[in-house]
Amino acid sequence: MSALTGALYAALVIYLGGWLMDKWIGNFALLLLLLTLVTFAYWLAERLYFAPRRRQAAALYETQEAARRAELTRQGIKVDGDVDDVKGRLLIQPWWLDWTAGLFPVIAVVFVLRSFLFEPFKIPSGSMIPTLQVGDLILVNKFHYGIRLPVINKKIIANHDPQRGDVMVFHYPIDPRVDYIKRVVGLPGDEVSYLNKQLKINGQPVPVKPEPDYYVDERRQYEQAFEEDLTGVKHQILTKADSPAGVQPFNGFPFKDNCQYSAEGVVCRVPPNSYFMMGDHRDDSQDSRYWGFVPDENIVGKAFFVWMNFNDLSRIGSFH
């Protein structure tokens, strides 16, 4: 068993090492599920087999040692040594159980919390500036949109439907192994138009209010800032005055025929059980304008809180 455990740890190190070195894209949900199942198997084996055998061996040693000592004492021979020391060594878990069965309760708690309650994410790009900054560590509510089975992401208990203005994490439709974060702009059945950098929902312009230009640190330049009001959810958006309004869509995404592209921008009709997503950094965000709609089965959860940014502690707090 020690050799098997060593092999499993070696495989884990190789997998994590390749993931960190960008040799492949890791699947943390699947990895956590496998770790939970493997450590549970060890934990069960420990409780039902290995621990009883160690206790049996310790009890047998204690019985035999007591008989041996009684016989030596009868013969007038003094016996040194502590029986409890040997018993303690017999009862100690070997390293391969300590590092598997012993970790099961912790891994199981993390698995439940991450799969069904809250999941942490790190913001890797500037597509949601100024709402979210590069390096923000955020929490995502996994049950707000319904309870889903881990790994396969199948909804088993419905809860709230996504609403316009929600900041949502989802599996990228082009490559579901990658998670994206954008703002919900269009709901199923909506007509969403973004022409000449003006957003309209079902023909109605989304209210915006000009604000002072915003300095984007990573770009080292000022950009136009506006307060946008998506059905009561007020948030800042940024645009670049010199960026073209039109976009170049990806080829062949599902329901592409629902969209019409021009030099002025794009007009899309959101299909059933799907959502139109946009970044708040409008001219620096690859979103539904480029790669289409996010189906309901790709939803991960609702982002709601920055719990840490090591470069700027003032970032900690909730957001809209």
Automatic annotation (TrEMBL):
Pfam families, alphabetized? Peptidase_S26 (PF10502)
Q: Does the keyword Transferase apply?
A: no
The UniProt entry annotates the active site at S127, K182
Q: Name one GO molecular function term.
A: signal peptidase activity
Q: Which residues form the Peptidase S26 domain?
A: 97-308
Q: What EC number(s) is this enzyme filed under?
A: 3.4.21.89
Classification via InterPro entries? LexA/Signal_pep-like_sf, Pept_S26A_signal_pept_1, Pept_S26A_signal_pept_1_CS, Pept_S26A_signal_pept_1_Lys-AS, Pept_S26A_signal_pept_1_Ser-AS, Peptidase_S26
Q: Which reaction does it catalyse?
A: Cleavage of hydrophobic, N-terminal signal or leader sequences from secreted and periplasmic proteins
Q: How does it sit in the membrane?
A: Single-pass type II membrane protein
Transmembrane feature ranges: 24-45, 96-117
Which GO BP terms apply?
A: signal peptide processing
EC class: hydrolase
**GO cellular component terms, A-Z:** membrane
Keyword set for this entry? Hydrolase, Membrane, Protease, Transmembrane, Transmembrane helix
Q: Where in the cell is it found?
A: Membrane
Q: Which sequence ranges form a coiled-coil region, renumbered to this chain?
A: none
| Family under the similarity heading | Belongs to the peptidase S26 family.
The name on file for this protein is Signal peptidase I
Instruction: Tell me what organism the protein belongs to.
Output: Scleromatobacter humisilvae
This chain is encoded by the gene named: lepB
